[in-house]
């Protein structure tokens, strides 16, 4: 089946999203990522509107709290009909298990339970910061792999990670353990503030299971064409 890049809808209002999506044909069903900025301003209605139009939603809220609270929050998120959501692996195996339970309990009968993935170390965290702020003394990569293994042990479906980490995470878990990778730029595109980037074709070759692409599509003069081009590269069609 054709794989879709996940479009990061990093806009600050529903109106801006509508204007952006109006540039796509209505029959093109997208997989979009909604983050905290938008969700906290617009609330669940933004998810309802996108799913009502037939789009799949990855709700990127990175939950991290005591297991009971995360479980109940996840139960609510499952009712929104999202396709994927996430937690911080730093919340621990027990919290991640509770998150999965909440999602399962909140999913209506006959519907698929949303994929649940974990954030390992944020890519904004440097190795030095991790040593100093979190008192984790192992190398950053080791911490990332450890968190991925914890997520797998808790029954999660995968992790968000840098494309450069996919191989070691798949080696430590399994090839179908989702590695969803941001930091993707088609050849020749503006890099923006991303530091370690990969193009869609490279991401496919190293085994990324999903790619997240924001600005190369959202800031494009011709978003639909940019989307189709990235989708082609991601599917290895050129
Ligand atoms: O515009 P761009 O393609 O850089 O957007 C990437 C998206 O992925 C943004 O929503 C960003 O917050 C998110 N992200 C990231 N790096 C991470 C985790 C999430 O770029 N490690």
Automatic annotation (TrEMBL):
GO terms for cellular component: cytosol. Keywords: Decarboxylase, Lyase, Pyrimidine biosynthesis. It catalyses: orotidine 5'-phosphate + H(+) = UMP + CO2. Residues 4-230 form the Orotidine 5'-phosphate decarboxylase domain. GO terms for biological process: 'de novo' pyrimidine nucleobase biosynthetic process; 'de novo' UMP biosynthetic process. Pathway: Pyrimidine metabolism; UMP biosynthesis via de novo pathway; UMP from orotate: step 2/2. Its EC number is 4.1.1.23. InterPro entries: Aldolase_TIM, OMPdecase, OMPdecase_AS, OMPdecase_bac, OMPdeCOase_dom, RibuloseP-bd_barrel. GO terms for molecular function: orotidine-5'-phosphate decarboxylase activity. It holds the Pfam family OMPdecase. The active site is at residues 60, 62, 65. Substrate binds at residues 10, 33, 60-69, 123, 185, 194, 214-215. Signal peptide: none annotated. NCBIfam families: PRK00230.1, pyrF. Belongs to the OMP decarboxylase family. Type 1 subfamily. Catalyzes the decarboxylation of orotidine 5'-monophosphate (OMP) to uridine 5'-monophosphate (UMP). Homodimer. This is Orotidine 5'-phosphate decarboxylase. It comes from Enterococcus pallens ATCC BAA-351. The gene is pyrF.
